[in-house]
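Example for tutorial group B:
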């Protein structure tokens, strides 16, 4: 079983606070999917769309690495 690690201080990091809970939930679910399926951060678009919305994903751009359909958005 793979693990998706999150820093224990991330709950109040400015990037996390700015992104908001819904966007963070999308990031967390996509990260867990990637860890479970050993995809090294790649999440199929169809899966990401089940987890969240385009506006939530947009909040992650520039804050968290997001990979959907093998396209890396952000850094």
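The residue assignment follows.
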């Amino acid at each position: 079983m793979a693990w998706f690690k999150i820093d224990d201080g991330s709950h109040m990091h400015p990037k996390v606070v700015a992104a908001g809970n819904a966007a963070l939930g999308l990031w967390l679910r996509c990260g867990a999917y990637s860890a479970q399926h050993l995809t090294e951060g790649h999440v199929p678009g169809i899966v990401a769309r089940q987890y969240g919305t385009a506006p939530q994903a947009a909040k992650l751009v520039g804050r968290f690495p997001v990979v959907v359909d093998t396209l890396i958005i952000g850094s």
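The chain has a mean pLDDT of 79. Compare this with the pattern of hydrophobic and polar residues in the output above.
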